[in-house]
Design goal:
6 strands, two-stranded antiparallel sheet, 216 residues
Length: 216
Amino acid sequence: MNSKLTCLCCKEFYPKDHNWIKTPKGRFASYDHLQAYVKNQNTLKLFRANAKKLKDKKKANAAFDKKVRDNDLSHQKKLTQKAFNKLRVLQEVDWFDRQGTEPFCISCGMPRGNDQWCNGHYKTVGGFPELRFDPVNSFLQHNQRCNMRLSGDIEGSKTTMGYKKGLIQRFGQEEGQAILDYCEKHHEPKRYTCDQLIAMRKQMNVDIREFERARG
């Protein structure tokens, strides 16, 4: 029984004594098959070349976009603020853990309950940007109730003592008042550069990972 061989183009089996077109690449059942194979190979090479160009272009665009973002001061402030807020919440929870007490909100004095913790600023980021990354100006606070619904609850409400009294209750009259006086006094504007913010955020992220590892 005559054995069979496969055409490199169509992958079909033909008798071994078929009138093969032999090339260094392999056997072809006919010149048409050879030409189709060469055409397909050229198309594949072109496709791969175009794909590589597209990939390289995407990489170049991504690198360009990153460079733009790295030099966008507003964008860098937002990213750094996010990292700072996360770090402060972890620092605050750790502070309560070291005191051996359950964390409570600086404005209402209540535990977290069904709310979420956030980093509540005493002086707002928009009004006092020089204090936006100052830990003395930010403490653990209910996100939904006190921070968002009561706009930080600085002076207190019918059911809460407020941020100011919360500082006194938590730290005592002398230290609490010192924090208030510090936040109320004039602070020189801080004109951060993008490189400074990136470096600050890098260190914040290192500290965040350490806190998260410590908490398991």
